[in-house]
Amino acid sequence: MAKTAKKEASTRRLILIGICVGAGLLLGLLNLIQFKPLLEAELYTRDLRVRFGQTAPLSPEIVFITIDKPTYQDILTEEEIAADPALAEMSTGSWPWRRSVWASVIQRISQAGAKVVGLDLMFPTPKDGDQELLQIMDQEGSRAVLGGTFEEVSNAGRTSVQLTLPAALASIGAPEISNENPAGRVGFVNLWPEKDGIVRSADYRRQFQDIPAVSLACRMLEKAGYADRIPATGSGILRFAGPPNFNYKAIPVYQLFVPATWEKVFENGAKLKDKIVLVGPYGNWSKDVIRTPYPNPMPGPEVHLAALGAALSGSFLTLPPFWTTPALIASAALLAFLLILATKQPILRLILLVAIGVGYAVLTFLIQDKLNLILPAVNPVLTLLFGGIGCLGYEFVLEQREKRRVSGMFSTMVSPEVLSYMQADPDRFRLTGEKRMVSIFFSDLAGFTTISESVSAEDLAKILNRYLTPMSDLVTKYGGYIDKYSGDAIMADFGVPVWVDPDPNSHAWKACWSALEQQERLQSLKQELKAEYGCDIDARMGINTGEVAAGNMGSDKKFQYTVMGDAVNQAARFEPANKPFDTHIMIGGKTYEMAKEKIEARFLANMIVKGKTEPVPCYELLAKKGGLSETKARVVQLFEEGWKLHAAKKFPQAIAKFDEALAVEANDGPSKAYKKICEGFLKSPPPDSWAGEY
Fold first, then answer.
1. Quick one: which of 331, 278, 272, 345 has its CA closest to 305?
2. Full-prediction pTM beyond 0.90?
3. 1-7 mean pLDDT
């Protein structure tokens, strides 16, 4: 049985390992194939960390000038509009404005001493004012950048990349946007989202077929003298300076040309000196919005600002090495297995699984927030939960199976309360063998052979069931376990498989009370069976308390939970030992010592049982504590006085005491038995070494 238990434990552990490994392999495979729901969930957790984490610092070198309205006619006075051609064009009410306006914007900012000015605008087709714009770009090209784009074009099933440059510079072609041309004056404004449509990274350099192109932000940084701040890989995961509309202060472009605001806002150009200036559309009217990690769309220019600011402050988020995710998934699978082994309480396991999962999620947030390192969150946490919950599910199935096994083994042998207790936690008792202190009960019908010969087989079965049912109920009433039936005999154990009473030694008195109530029930049953079947029944019982080996005993194919040991053998011998004393319940000395506060009993004999050389004390169980009549108490007193005289070899005096007892109760079996023993010793004295043993 021990080998079987070890084998079951080993199999259980292997299956738990298999569940955790399976969870890890599943999540690892889904991660490898970029399973869309998991990928989007992972990206979403990254976005949450961005939203609630610290933002990139606002660079004091960056100035954001916005085109916040398509016309400023309602803002500017007639005098202001007439004072400057650029303001006049901004107030015409038509959009887009003439290209000469942007030439004026570039010139104004450049002459104020800005390191670079970039226009997040497209001028793809030739328009009026291109000549002025080209002239300014030729003049201020060392610190001015315009926007270009790359677009994929499909034709006849083939896809190609089309470069669109500002019309004023289109004749020069690809060199204007090439990374190989430091004097280039164009940068692409494209922003490429990830698979879920959200922009999280900025591409500073990118290869388009045979064109090694640079972005608007990259070209601006190069012209400002910060080429060394651009990531060597050509791209970087952005840490934004804040949510949409809450980062860099937006200054309306018209304020460059209004004398009052030029002086107040720009301090006559001092606020632009040595700055990196981005000019772009801003507001709902422009429809230039981008999905970012924040819930609300972000104006396109703010993403370019984030690219500039991240490079200047080095506020990029980084991904860990490729092996990190598999390693974390494997660690989560191992942790799930260890967690299942660490505690047996399902609720506690679940709480720990959730707590560790939440704790790891918080850890990924802190690491990303403080160390700029993006750790995977979803796959490791799901591996932990899938592995842990999978193991819980498997153990639940095992538990239900164990409950059914326990129910099958004990449902008719223990009380419903004890069975529920055992089913609730089968691990509280062991089926593989253990040392236990128990009280063992044996009973047998007197003269059963005679009864069986006097009735039919059918009636015999009915008589036995009528007898065994109430007797068994009284055993289980006091927490006893019906070990076995052998014909008319009952063997029951008190104290195993579990003992739910807070007093671990209460099994002794409960076994005694069960026997007393069985004898009481037997008196009424006698009359019923006598009337129905014409037979007389009586039962003798033996109880002994001691240490036994308890567990499943038998072969690998057939076994039963039972107890074995010397204490069991003595209990079995106490039952037939009632016969010469004409008693009904005999208990051992250990039982008496443990139960004497709850029972009434009289010392019966120092008995030498078969196979033993040392006498063991035994008692006749008479009643529950306080339940002895005065007459019976007087008989017990006289008997015990007579027994002591008999043990002292004062046989005539002992006989006199036994006669006194019999005078009070003529049918007192022990007094009759010892009177006869003393009379025998008068004829044939015992040896000198005899000290009263029977």
1. 278
2. no
3. 57
